[in-house]
Automatic annotation (TrEMBL):
Enzyme Commission no: 2.1.1.107
Species, as recorded: Desulfosarcina widdelii
Stretches assigned to the Tetrapyrrole methylase domain: 9-221
Stated name of the protein: uroporphyrinogen-III C-methyltransferase
The Tetrapyrrole biosynthesis uroporphyrinogen III synthase domain, residue ranges: 272-502
Amino acid sequence: MHTTNSTGRVYLVGAGPGDPGLITVKGVDCIARADVVIYDYLASPTLLAHANPDAEMIYVGKKGGDHTLAQEGINALIVEKARQGLTVARLKGGDPFIFGRGGEEAEVLIAADVPFEVVPGVTAAIGASAYAGIPLTHRDHTSDVAFVTGHEDPTKSESSIDWQALATGIGTLVFFMGVKNLPSIAANLMANGRPADTPVAVVRWGTTPKQKTVTGTLASIEDDVRKACIKAPAIIIIGTVVNLRKTMRWFENRPLFGRRIVVTRAREQASDLIRQLTELGAEAIQCPTIQVKPTRDWTPVDAAIEAIDQYDWLVFTSVNGVDYFFDRLFEKGHDARALGHIKTAAIGPATAKRLETRGLKSDIVPDNYRAESVVKAFSETIVRGTRILLPRAKEARSVLPVELTGMGATVDEVTVYETWQAENSGDELVKRLEAGTIDMVTFTSSSTVKNFRKLLPPDDAQRLMKGITVASIGPITSRTARDLGLAVTIEAESYTVPGLVQAILNHSWQRR
């Protein structure tokens, strides 16, 4: 969205500590409205999905010791884009004004006479400590807390940190960016009166599925962190409140915590599965293998719509079938009233629910969500002599039209959508498989299996998938996977996304 003024506006947006759900509503709105998004290493990539597809995305790094662009260059870039009349979202990990150098960027914008707003974010001190089960204040432990940099400006001639005041005057201390200087931090605090047995926690990648927490004391924490191989990004929490983690830890106790699970579903449909896996603690890795697109030839569909009064039944086998059929129905000048005389069948609850949003209730919803179950449900209904319209995917299984025709019905199949190979080279997937950073791959249809298999090097697929758990939504999908050489470990009993998640949970509990 270009601003009306010759100079644009800059939003200094706090992206939160890692969990994309912790960004503010206003922060999401700023990303969505921006012409340019300038983002840091610690800003969750998931947040970028809120941006306008036409927005310019600029990564400026800010990874410890490896800055893609120096701060001076970032400042100049922000001013340059704003002076082009663009709306700029400067997306920063945590909160812009808590060790985020947002104050420096604001000063540069003021000097350049560029309008700006600050959108606060959840700082890592608050987010990571809460997700580690450590309240920074507690009436039985402390009423004060201090946020301290663990990495002062190296150009300063002397430290501005009052170690004696921190050691003896503040109950809870939180150090940012201090892992490399942890030995010095602990030594300074103990030398200035903080007891050596003061509890300490170091939280790496706080609020994300990669979170790892190590606890110890001022005397032991250097060795504890070294043994656990904890590196940046991490925060250090010091004080007796750390002891509360023993009973308050909740995030890392979730049943799928730390499991790295690939979601192969189409990007537009993956959100529900990703949300459920993430809520259970998994790192859901989006790798859409299919794209769902409308049919390239609407002629048969349009003919069926014009003759809609001749049909007795309308059968849907997917949510996509409902959406694309009704969109075309409306586009041709009709609405749900044109279907008032027709009975409907839906292959499962998700499809039936989507049909309800279009104003129709399903007369048939089978117990098991596959074509064979729809046929069985129809066997209890008189279909001989009826005419059935079946809007669905191109190259769908033939079970349903064949069996219904055998029962004496006239079945008209019309293609309303097609599934295509997703525009994804698979390079990132192969890299992660090579690195051993994937635990499980989920499949929600035969097409996701087929296209996933195409992403793997033909002669190396077996090696790359060795040790990877494969989870399938149902027997048809499982059969396709096995036919392509993928061993299926988990199969949902209920052929739905919740059923798949439950099967993954059951497998996790059995392993434990």
